[in-house]
Design brief:
Organism: Actinomadura luzonensis
Strand content: 5-15%
Oligomer: single chain
CATH class of the largest domain: Alpha Beta
Order of helices and strands: HHHHHHEEHHHHHEEEHE
Protein name: Helix-turn-helix domain-containing protein
Domain HTH cro/C1-type: 38-84
Low-confidence stretches: 98-102
Strand order of the largest sheet: 3-4-5-1-2-6
Length: 285
């Protein structure tokens, strides 16, 4: 059984076990006297309109569901849209994505756009969360990316394993959980990416936090939100982030930070005060 097949089976089991029977359309007599949490396999089968044997074989990794059955299971298990996409990716039922074009691991024209976004901190990531380019403001806010070895210029690696950034995120647990949920979605969408698989292995082996959160099998693509940060010199601030995907480079992400309140604006201005004198964006390499 392949890693992806095992993950498909485990994901369906964990989604079933997290459901409260009272939240689904089951007769009241079925929601009492339970020794284990979640729905029973026969209840998932009833809600999805398939046989109990079918659910058992899928959860044992002996069967790959059709798109129609995947839709039914997603509805029965109350999956979010990100979880539904993850399920289809694991089952290899989503239309194949275009292969990344040559140079997909370089920022290309986005490098200039990153500079144009100054004084807002901005950076470009690929689907592995490698940092391909950044402007001086992002470097001043987070860390001197240029001083890092290339293999450490990865937002997930920095967030989880870099000791100098452990106190940077004031909501560390939430930040890690959201990042790992996003990483899991990327992994399912790029199952043949050996470098991405190696990164996940390094993170889970190197951090008990990551291993614990990875095992939760949360899936969520984070397009916008807030981060509560603690800068070594300027103190606490909160930023709102926006993630944009270029049409010509769908495996890349442009990440932009904005101050979330007047106090954070003043702190960010203090942090980036000298960045206007910088020469320009720094592409990784």
């Amino acid at each position: 059984m392949s890693i992806v097949t095992r993950e498909l089976a485990a994901f369906l089991r964990t989604r079933r076990e997290r459901l409260d029977p009272r939240d689904v359309a089951l007769p009241a007599r079925r929601t009492t006297h339970r020794r284990t949490p979640g729905l029973r396999r026969e209840e998932v089968a009833e809600l999805a309109g398939v046989s109990v044997d079918y659910v058992i074989r899928v959860e044992q990794g002996r069967l790959r569901p059709s798109p129609e059955v995947l839709e039914a299971l997603a509805g029965a298990l109350r999956l979010s849209e990100d979880e539904r996409v993850y399920l289809f990716d694991l089952a290899r039922q989503r239309p194949a994505q275009r292969r990344p074009a040559a140079g997909a691991d370089t920022a290309g024209p986005l490098s200039r756009l990153v500079l144009d976004l100054s004084p807002l901190p901005a950076m470009v990531l690929n689907h592995r969360f490698d940092i391909l380019a950044w402007n001086p403001e992002m470097s001043a806010l987070m860390i001197d990316f240029a001083a890092l070895p290339p293999e450490q210029r990865n937002s997930m690696w920095l967030c989880t394993l870099h000791q100098g950034l452990r106190a940077f995120y004031r909501d560390r647990e939430r930040t890690l959980r959201e990042g790992i949920a996003d990483l899991r979605a990327a992994w399912a969408a790029h199952p043949d990416d050996a470098a991405l698989a190696a990164l996940i292995e390094e993170l889970t082996a190197g951090s008990e936090e990551v291993a614990r959160l990875w095992a939760l099998r949360d899936v969520r693509v984070n397009g916008r939100g807030r981060k509560r940060l603690r800068h070594a010199e300027a103190g606490s601030l909160t930023v709102e982030y926006e993630v944009l995907t270029p049409l010509q480079a769908p495996d890349q992400r442009l990440v932009i930070y904005r101050p979330a309140d007047p106090a954070s604006r003043r702190a960010l201005e203090e942090i980036t005060a000298g960045c206007a004198l910088a020469a320009g964006p720094v592409p990784a390499g």
